[in-house]
Amino acid sequence: MPARRFIYALFLSVSLFYYIFHTGYVSWILLVIAIALPVLSLLLTWLLFRGGQRISICSGAARTDGKKGISLSLKLISSSPSARARLRVTAENLFTGEKATRKMMLVSEEETAVPFEGKHCGVIRATVKRPRVLDLLGLIGLPVRADGQVEVLLLPKEIPFSGNPDALFPQGGEDQQKWADTGIMTREWKDIRDYREGDLLRDIHWKLTARRGKAVVREYEWAAGKTAHIAVSCGDTQSEAAQAVARFLGVAHAFLSAGFSLRVLWPAYENGQAEAR
To answer: Which is nearest to 220 in space by CA: 165, 173, 169?
Structure first.
């Protein structure tokens, strides 16, 4: 667009000087054309494009993996295939306050990808600012509607969990019962069977024991109710927070794959003390 404005300014200057130093019909007509061109271009642009164009924005996958960040997809939807628009796209990390702005040009019905590098995890808010559809000569921009804002969650690369989730939970006996008493694990009554050494007295079915004349216990199934409690501490710096979230993603993925349900404890600071919520 600057090149077109320069050419038009040069044409207007030549027409003006030609009219000043050589007054005549040709110079007068040339000056009128030079002055009327932008007006006619704006009028035709308004008649062709009125109410028929907007800018669509959507977001792609987001990861803080190396220099990768978020990828925005912009598209100018217009009734004219020759429409062009210039705009500014601003991406702001709501957690860290990082901002990045890019100027760009869109062509009608062509989808354009705009990458933004993200150094820290957080919620990225992308906004289209000052969108303008250019007139037919490409000299002046007319306001155009944009589809608001887009927010995308920027996550760090997952750090895999190297342990075995099942090995961290008791497999039977009194330890398993203690975990059940605290609510961390749940159990469901599966069946009844004869008493074996090591069974808990509280699991004995006393009515059936008296009826059969031998000890009978209730058998429970624990796997269906396995619940893992994960406490997340984000640290004091942005890098520590990103590493904590990356480790949390790895742990959560491992436990969910092993059939666990999760309960996440986030620290909430009240009166200078941290409480899990």
So the answer is: 173
